[in-house]
TrEMBL record:
Gene3D superfamilies: Penicillin V Acylase, Chain A. NCBIfam families: C45_proenzyme. This is Peptidase C45 hydrolase domain-containing protein. Residues 134-348 form the Peptidase C45 hydrolase domain. Pfam families: AAT (PF03417).
Length: 365
């Protein structure tokens, strides 16, 4: 077993593997990031004020039990990662269940005067595949509680598969973006289905995206999503670097799915369903970003980064600086250069803090 770590700016990178099992992977991550995991649990107001009190009620028990059983049965290795992370960091398994399934639990938390914090993860993506470039650019936006509570996991499994995943403290990799040595990558956009579209005790989005980290190609990634049995909806930007393709995939419960191929017209996606017909909550933040993005130039990579760094709308900027929502970083995936760059700070400034050369890492055909 070889493990190493390095600090670059604010975002730590942890390299580990080959890992003998999911539990082993989770344990090493939990051990390495125990401080960040404990800090997040202490400061995350959604966890403290909504999830934890709900978990102490009798009303929550059937939901938590069935969620746990369904996901453990479907993805036993990923469930073991969660258990290993809890053991390695010395925190309660229940706490990490609540973090990993917060999107699947919060719709069932009674709306009380305590429930004031919004669990928003308002990411923005702009994507294109044309003759001159093939690029996916992604703002990773989250509640300000996540500041200082994220890290990059670069793991090698016993199978030989390697992945890199931007990871929230206490959660399995990755609810944000990642890529693997099969040349597959993804970014994610949260979407807000109405409450009657949510199926209790389905498969959690964290477990579905963890499964995508092991996809072999675009067809395999789509198969994993189509058969997922998700509890709540999500939008996936699937990137096949070898095939030079990008798909936007919108999903909902009961295995409803809509697939859109990204081509020469730049495609912007915020946090509303754009092509899957479904009842959804109207999100003013997302609608505002969608309108603003439509006005901005999208001809070059520089345009894409300027768009994602736009702060013209003071109420709902594309690049967020608080007080509730914050752009944690920006990822730029270039399918032709076969690079993944991470920018901390406004992407307009193009201050790349991490760059990964996928061409030296992708498995040979």
């Amino acid at each position: 077993m070889e493990t190493s770590s390095m600090e670059e700016r604010n975002l730590p990178v942890f390299e580990l593997g080959p890992c003998e099992s999911g539990y082993h992977l989770g344990f090493l991550v939990g051990q390495r990031f125990a401080k960040q995991i404990r800090s997040r649990l202490a400061t995350d107001l959604i966890f403290q004020n909504q999830l934890l009190p709900f978990a102490k009620t009798q009303q929550s028990q059937p939901l938590l039990r069935s969620l746990s059983e369904a996901n453990r049965e479907r993805f036993p290795s990923y469930w073991d990662e969660l258990l290993g992370t809890a053991e390695g960091s010395g925190v309660a398994v229940l706490d990490l269940i609540l973090l990993n399934f917060r999107k699947e639990i919060l719709p069932f938390v009674p709306k009380t005067t305590v429930s004031l914090e919004a669990d928003a993860e308002d990411c923005s993506d702009v994507l294109v595949v044309c003759d001159s470039m093939a690029v996916a650019a992604h703002n990773e936006d989250a509640n300000v509680a996540l500041l200082g509570h994220t890290y990059l996991i670069r793991a090698t499994l016993s199978s030989g598969l390697s992945f890199t995943a931007y990871t929230y403290a206490g959660e399995i990799p990755s609810c944000a973006f990642g890529f693997n040595n099969n040349g597959m990558a993804f970014t994610l956009n949260s979407v807000p289905p109405s409450e009657d579209e949510i199926v209790a005790s389905g498969i959690g989005r964290n477990f579905i995206s963890r499964d995508l980290l092991e996809a072999t190609n675009m067809d395999d990634a789509l198969t994993r999503i189509r058969s997922s049995g998700a509890s709540v909806g999500h939008s996936y930007n699937l990137i096949d670097i070898r095939a030079r393709r990008i798909l936007n995939v919108e999903t909902a419960s009961r295995n409803r799915i809509s697939v859109r191929e990204v081509q020469e017209t730049p495609f912007f996606h915020a946090n509303m369903y754009l092509h899957l017909q479904i009842q959804q909550v109207q999100d003013e933040n997302s609608l505002s970003r969608q309108k603003r993005a439509a006005l901005l130039p999208k001809q070059t990579k520089t345009d894409f980064l300027s768009l994602l760094g736009d702060t013209d709308d003071e109420t709902y900027p594309i690049y967020m600086k608080g007080p509730t929502l914050y752009t944690l970083c920006t990822a730029l995936i270039d399918l032709d250069e076969k690079t993944v760059s991470i920018i901390e700070g406004n992407p307009k400034e193009r201050q790349v803090t991490h760059i990964f050369l996928m061409s030296s890492w992708i498995n040979a055909d």
